Each structure stands twice: as structure tokens, then as C-alpha cells.
Amino acid sequence: MEGAAEPGNLAGVRHIILVLSGKGGVGKSTVSTELALALRHAGKKVGILDVDLCGPSIPRMLGAQGRAVHQCDRGWAPVFLDREQSISLMSVGFLLEKPDEAVVWRGPKKNALIKQFVSDVAWGELDYLVVDTPPGTSDEHMAAIEALRPYQPLGALVVTTPQAVSVGDVRRELTFCRKTGLRVMGVVENMSGFTCPHCAECTSVFSRGGGEELAQLAGVPFLGECPELVPGSRPPVPSLPWAGLTSVPPVPEGEEGMGAVSSSLLGPHATLLRPVAPPPTPFSGPSWVAGPGLLGGPRVWRWKPSGSASVLSMATGGSGASS
Amino acid sequence: MEEVPHDCPGADSAQAGRGASCQGCPNQRLCASGAGATPDPAIEEIKEKMKTVKHKILVLSGKGGVGKSTFSAHLARGLAEDENTQIALLDIDICGPSIPKIMGLEGEQVHQSGSGWSPVYVEDNLGVMSVGFLLSSPDDAVIWRGPKKNGMIKQFLRDVDWGEVDYLIVDTPPGTSDEHLSVVQYLAAAHIDGAVIITTPQEVSLQDVRKEINFCRKVKLPIIGVVENMSGFICPKCKKESQIFPPTTGGAELMCQDLEVPLLGRVPLDPLIGIQEFCNLHQSKEENLISS
């Protein structure tokens, strides 16, 4: 809708990957997080943009709930997970006053926030920006693609589970990608099988083969399977940023799971995903104040969804004022 | 009202037509005149239409993939086992309509009669409506923004000839957005019995479901209760139970205690989706619903 984009806050981002699925609950957020961690493990600087405004899962998956968004000279500072600033996040989850607060917005308001996430967040220099999306083919997706189009997104990673009801929705998502001119890098099949912890029998709890068939049908690469959750491997919500996510069991020798996916994305220079290793200097402390470039003292921006025109209240030292 | 500015304050807000973002919008004059604040006449029309529908139940979840459509379909089938009850199943998931596939009705078309659109009858006493029946190919994507989806939902409620119905079950998409606001708004005058909220045991679902419960409270939608789906898995080889989605934060039970909503029951994850088990389960749901 607007003219050619100014060299905005995404100018320093080399590649943008959208993680899509027509279907809900297939593991888009899990795959986005795992992919970001795998890319980081391969030495890349990664950002994660969570445009699922109604169900923002990324903060919890990375143990970053309750973190505040601060302002810097170039706009909103993304939330960094570590001192090296190798992984940064932005999600509406950080802007809510209470974690259980429902974001009950119609399309136009959601579009406005997504535009802001793209243009007003100071992403800085990133190798990859992974964009996690909600299920469907509606406002959020169109808004994200419109806002990201000037930056030529690398493409879309489409996630499915094996069963027919998922494949049925994901076919529509592939049509959406074709119609919007978004290149599909490949299909990832999640929750491919469950290994019983008692007898090690692997059962296809959500049927089997759907991902590969879908990829063949659509003429796009099938990037691989990710296994089902291993029971008991997920620890309670931890204070460490990466440890909320151990849904993919340690990858054996050879290319499997997200290691295969990141290898496909990064090409021959990629390293394989090993068991997710913590960053060398883990983040600690409840409120992270961004590094160089922050003007003045910490200012906490909170988005207050209200019935009237959008209210962004700026709280300094706990008191609120509407802007 | 399809082409609205991205930061439209909303046609029914105090700023309608007057805000800075309204400049240039084709509907600016309409909103400024206060027309947006008057109730949509469709609400009364829908109220009239819904007079023949005794009970209306919404199946919600903040989270995707928890089994809303599966549950809705099985609940509808369970209730329809009594041949004397007339059941209607409405799928308002416009972008991802799963009900036709789950009910085995893919490829069916909707017909129009003098009294409106006819639902697709899978049994004599079970009629189904979904946008899936309006698409000509399984690859067709419905790439619509909010206002157009709202229009479709309005048509489903106003223009479908449901006839005399004992239970209307409405399957919704995940989230708390246009579809949910619209269905609650359009059925506001027609009285919704309540919502059944589906979740799976793990925290990443529960955190979205808590939002959905808050949404229900915000829009004053009664909550019939919560169903925990995919709760436990029996290995077909060794028959031992394990949790694929471990309830590390107490599962639905603790959430229901905290938020003071009834837990209606738990449904295990069965790769074959045993119909028998579901029907038995749904008998008890039916009792809950009738008593509420």
C-alpha cells in the first residue's frame, strides 16, 4: 500500500523465513524455535518474529515470558536471549499486561501491530529472521507478507502433521503461497511417530506419510520428518532461555530432524544439530536492558488492548500514561 | 466494508470516522454519522431464524490442533444417535474447514432452495454446513480478511435453512478474533447456551486456553466446561499408558480449579479414533449440556 520501503529496521536482515501451516497445532512455533536454535548453533545471528497475536507461544518456548520490551534509538528493541545477542525475539506476548490476557482484536488492528513489528523493531544485523505465524490464510499472513515483501523473504517453510485433516488444510496454505508469490522452501512433517517409553515401539499416532505425499503433490521439496515429543523430556518452565524447548530428542549421527532442515537451508556449509547446547553465557535476571544504543533509562512499553482506539501506554517506573 | 485502513479504530468505536487513520477511507462519512454504532439488522434476522434452534453450543479453543473439529463432529454424531433429536453442525473455520473431511462429506455441494441454503445431511437428523462445501477444489485457499469472513458467518447464521433443530454445534477456528467475535455478536440476541473449550494437557496449549476463557468472560459467554483431549496414550504393543503431551503444569484439571470452570472430562489419544469410546463419552457430555 505504501511506496518503496525506506531502508528500515529490516535492512540488516539477510534472509527471512516464514513458518506457515494452514493447520493449527502442527508445531509451527516449535519448528520456528528449533530452527532458530539450529541456525544459531551453526553460528548465525537469528531473530524470531512471532506474529501469532492471539496465541503467542514463542516467549514461553524460550523461557522468556514476562520480559519487557524497551525502546532504543531506532525503535523497539527486541528481547535478546543472551548477552551475545545472537537470538532476539519479538512477540505480542511481551506487550500484554497479564499473560492470560486475551487479545480480542479484529483484522485491521492486528494488521497495524504486525506492520509495527516489521517497521519499528530494531532488529539490527541478522543472518536469519524466522517469522512464526498463526494457523490459517488471513489477516496476519497477508499483513506479514505485505510488510515483508520489500525485503524479499527467502521463502516459506510449511509444517504439517501426517494425517489427512492436516494435509487438507496445508494444501490450501500452499495455494496461498503460490498466489502471494512466496517461494516454498519445503515441507516439514512434524509429530511423525511416537516411541513408547516402556517398550520402544514406534506408533504413528497421527497416521503416516502425509507430509511426503503433500510435498510431492505440490512439487516442493520434502525437507524431512521431526519425531513426536518424547514423554518426560520436557522440563518445567526454567529460568534459562533455551531449556523450555527440548521437544526434539538428541539427534543421532547423520541428518535427522531439524538438523536436516537447517542443513537444507544453509547448504553444504551447515553444521548438524546436536543436542541443543546452552549459549556460553546464559542470560539471567528478570529484565534485560538492551546494550549500546539505548537512550535514557529503561522505558517499558505495554500494549493495552482496549475497546477504544489503540492505546499504547508508556509506563515509567510503574505508573502508566496514555499516548 | 472490505477495504478499511490498517489502523481502523472500528466502526463501532467512539473514534469512528473521526480518527486520523480514517482520512481517505471510503466509509469515513458513514462512520462519522454514527451509522456504525447502530446494531446490525442481521442480528434481529438471525434471532428470528434461530427461534427454531433449541440449544446452541460453541466449541472453542485458543489453541490450534487440540481437536475442536474432531470433538464437534463426534459430539454431533453422539447426539444424533437418538433419532428423535435433530442436530446441526456449523463449521465457521473459514480458512481451515475440517468438518467436511472429518464427517466424510468431501466433495458435497450446497444447494439453494426458496427458504435458503440447505445444509448437507449426513444422516436424516444431522445436517452440516461449512465453507468447505462452497470450494470447488481441495486446493482452493480462502484468503479473506476479517470483514469478508464476518460476512460469510452472517450468511451461515441467517441464510441457512436449518429447520427445527435441537442442538446447533458450532465449530470454530483457533484464536480470539473476527470469527469468534462475529459469532458471539450475531447470536447475541438468540441466546447461546454456552461454550465447550477443548485443550490438550501441555502448558503451551493451556496458556492459550486461559486466554480463551478470559475471552468468554469478556463477551459474557457462559462456559459449559473444558475437555482435555489427547490425554494419555495407550501403546498398542505393550498396552501401557504414557503421556505424549505431559501435563507439566497440572494439565486441564489444575487450570479448571484455578479458573473455576468445570472439567467435563478427558479423552485419550487414540490413533484409530475409536468411535465407540467417543459415543460413550458423549453420552455424559449430553447429560451435562442438558442439565446446564
UniProtKB/TrEMBL annotation, chain A:
Its cofactor is [4Fe-4S] cluster. CDD domains: Mrp_NBP35. ATP binds at residues 22-29. It comes from the Eukaryota. Binds 4 [4Fe-4S] clusters per heterotetramer. Contains two stable clusters in the N-termini of NUBP1 and two labile, bridging clusters between subunits of the NUBP1-NUBP2 heterotetramer. [4Fe-4S] cluster binds at residues 196, 199. Keywords: 4Fe-4S, ATP-binding, Cytoplasm, Cytoskeleton, Iron, Iron-sulfur, Metal-binding, Nucleotide-binding, Nucleus. Its main location: cytoplasm. GO terms for molecular function: 4 iron, 4 sulfur cluster binding; ATP binding; ATP-dependent FeS chaperone activity; metal ion binding. GO terms for biological process: iron-sulfur cluster assembly. One of its GO terms (cellular component) is spindle pole centrosome. It holds the Pfam family ParA. Gene3D superfamilies: P-loop containing nucleotide triphosphate hydrolases. It is found in: Cytoplasm, Cytoskeleton, Cilium axoneme; Cytoplasm, Cytoskeleton, Microtubule organizing center, Centrosome, Centriole; Nucleus; Cytoplasm, Cytoskeleton, Microtubule organizing center, Centrosome. Heterotetramer of 2 NUBP1 and 2 NUBP2 chains. Interacts with KIFC1. Interacts with NUBP1. Belongs to the Mrp/NBP35 ATP-binding proteins family. NUBP2/CFD1 subfamily. This is Cytosolic Fe-S cluster assembly factor NUBP2.
From TrEMBL, chain B:
One of its GO terms (biological process) is iron-sulfur cluster assembly. It is found in: Cytoplasm; Nucleus. Its cofactor is [4Fe-4S] cluster. Heterotetramer of 2 NUBP1 and 2 NUBP2 chains. Interacts with KIFC1. GO terms for molecular function: 4 iron, 4 sulfur cluster binding; ATP binding; ATP-dependent FeS chaperone activity; metal ion binding. Residues 54-210 form the AAA+ ATPase domain. It comes from the Eukaryota. PANTHER family: CYTOSOLIC FE-S CLUSTER ASSEMBLY FACTOR NUBP1, NUCLEOTIDE-BINDING PROTEIN NBP35 YEAST -RELATED. The keyword Cytoplasm applies. Component of the cytosolic iron-sulfur (Fe/S) protein assembly (CIA) machinery. Required for maturation of extramitochondrial Fe-S proteins. The NUBP1-NUBP2 heterotetramer forms a Fe-S scaffold complex, mediating the de novo assembly of an Fe-S cluster and its transfer to target apoproteins. Implicated in the regulation of centrosome duplication. Negatively regulates cilium formation and structure. Keywords: 4Fe-4S, ATP-binding, Cytoplasm, Iron, Iron-sulfur, Metal-binding, Nucleotide-binding. CDD domains: Mrp_NBP35 (cd02037). Pfam families: ParA. ATP binds at residues 62-69. [4Fe-4S] cluster 2 binds at residues 235, 238. [4Fe-4S] cluster 1 binds at residues 8, 22, 25, 31. It comes from Pongo abelii. Coiled coil: none annotated. This is Cytosolic Fe-S cluster assembly factor NUBP1. Gene3D superfamilies: P-loop containing nucleotide triphosphate hydrolases. Binds 4 [4Fe-4S] clusters per heterotetramer. Contains two stable clusters in the N-termini of NUBP1 and two labile, bridging clusters between subunits of the NUBP1-NUBP2 heterotetramer.
